[in-house]
Amino acid sequence: MNTLQTFAAPTGRFFLAIMFFMSGITKISQYAGTQGYMEAMGVSGALLPLVILVEVMGGLAIILGWKTKYAAIALTGFSILSAILFHADFSNQAEMNNFMKNIAIAGGFLTLFVHGPGAFSIDNRTSKNTLN
């Protein structure tokens, strides 16, 4: 593996996952507002703790390269579900862009699921399992 590939893997994981980690932290500090937004979109606000858990723990797992394949598949589903629930108004160009962004992110997570975390990951240091 050449140097560029070696450093591209952890950098790519960081770029892909930092948004989720930070979004989850922000949801904690803006809990009531986020809960209200979810309910306005027809999603139960009672799901917010699960959303925060998925974003914070999933994002952190991807960044660290820990249980990467499990986190990647979970965040794939989360990204697609979020696109459908919150950004499916295709008459609004901004929402269409957000929908497509979520689908593109899901594609990135599927790539991680298939190819694994790459260099500088906990998975590559601690496990010999086929599904890290």
Given helix and strand content, the structural type is mainly alpha
Total number of helices? 6
Beta-strand content estimate: under 5%
Query: How many strands, what sense, and barrel or not for the largest sheet?
Result: none
Mean pLDDT: 94
Tell me roughly what share of residues is in helical segments. over 70%
Uncertain segments are: none
Distance between the termini: 20 Å
Number of E strands: 0
N-to-C order of helices and strands: HHHHHH
Describe, in short, the structure shown:
With 132 residues, the chain is mostly helical. Helices cover 77% and strands 0% of the residues.
Strands, helices and their partners?
Blueprint: H1 3-29, H2 31-40, H3 48-64, H4 68-86, H5 93-115, H6 122-126
Helix pairs in contact: 1-3, 3-4, 4-5
Verbal overview:
The protein has helices at residues 3-29, 31-40, 48-64, 68-86, 93-115, 122-126. It is mostly helical. The longest helix is centred in the N-terminal third of the chain and has 27 residues, at 3-29.
Which tags fit this structure?
single chain; about 130 residues; mainly alpha; about 0% strand; globular
